[in-house]
Amino acid sequence: MTRNEARDIADAGFVHIAADPELVGTLLAQSGSDVAGLRVMAARPEFAVFVLDFLLEQDQRVLDFAQAAHIAPQRVQMARAVLGGGDPW
């Protein structure tokens, strides 16, 4: 998986989160920010890792996202590893 593919998965994850008010509320609470602050955070490169970590925190979250994105759940973990600089295997 390339960094661009990993970034695309993180971006799709953020879109998925943004479409669910409950997930948005939880993400805001975890970030300690409001919507305006979240917009500022979204412009930072590490935000993609934050989004993937958020999705990976709960099995059901990552499964729901993977199903909606039509990808294998393992690809979310791989994307996290690629963006975090680690080897996924």
What is the topological layout?
Layout: H1 3-18, H2 21-31, H3 35-42, H4 47-56, H5 59-69, H6 73-84
How would you summarize this macromolecular structure in one to three sentences?
This protein is 76% helix and 0% strand. It is an all-alpha fold and 89 residues long.
What does this structure look like?
With 89 residues, the chain is an all-alpha fold. The chain contains 6 helices and no strands. The radius of gyration is 12 Å and the shape is globular. The chain starts with a helix and ends in a 5-residue tail after the last helix.
- List low-confidence stretches: none
Number of helices: 6
- What is the helix content? over 70%
Give me the Rg, rounded: 12 Å
Query: Structural class of the secondary structure composition?
Result: mainly alpha
Largest sheet: none
Question: What key attributes describe this structure?
Answer:
89 residues; 6 helices; mainly alpha; globular
